[in-house]
Here is the input.
Amino acid sequence: QLQLVESGGGLVQPGGSLRLSCAASRFTLRIYDIGWFRQAPGGEREGVSCISRTGGSTNYAESVKGRFTISRDNVKDTVYLQMNSLKPEDTAIYSCAASRRCNPSPNGMDYWGKGTLVTVSS
Here is the structure.
């Protein structure tokens, strides 16, 4: 079964930047669309961004448009989420997920990582 591993989370001040990475163990990410989701304390999991298997198509939640950029390197078999101009409300556990087709609903994704915590605070 495809297992995903996220990295790059941490504590950052408002206005700062972080880059999250998503990689797979034992299998390749290249044949999947990959999405980033987040779940804030006490909140529901929500879609942040998604990228097609070729990287030719991306989409973003309105709340992160212009600040976050999703990309993938199919040679390194890794998907990235560059997060700039971070706000306290971006604080959440960020998880990557894989599926044959991007889906804004978590229920539409098939394989998940355990997540990495991003905390935006001064």
Remarks:
- The radius of gyration is 13 Å.
- The CA atoms of residues 32 and 100 lie 5 Å apart.
- The chain has a mean pLDDT of 95.
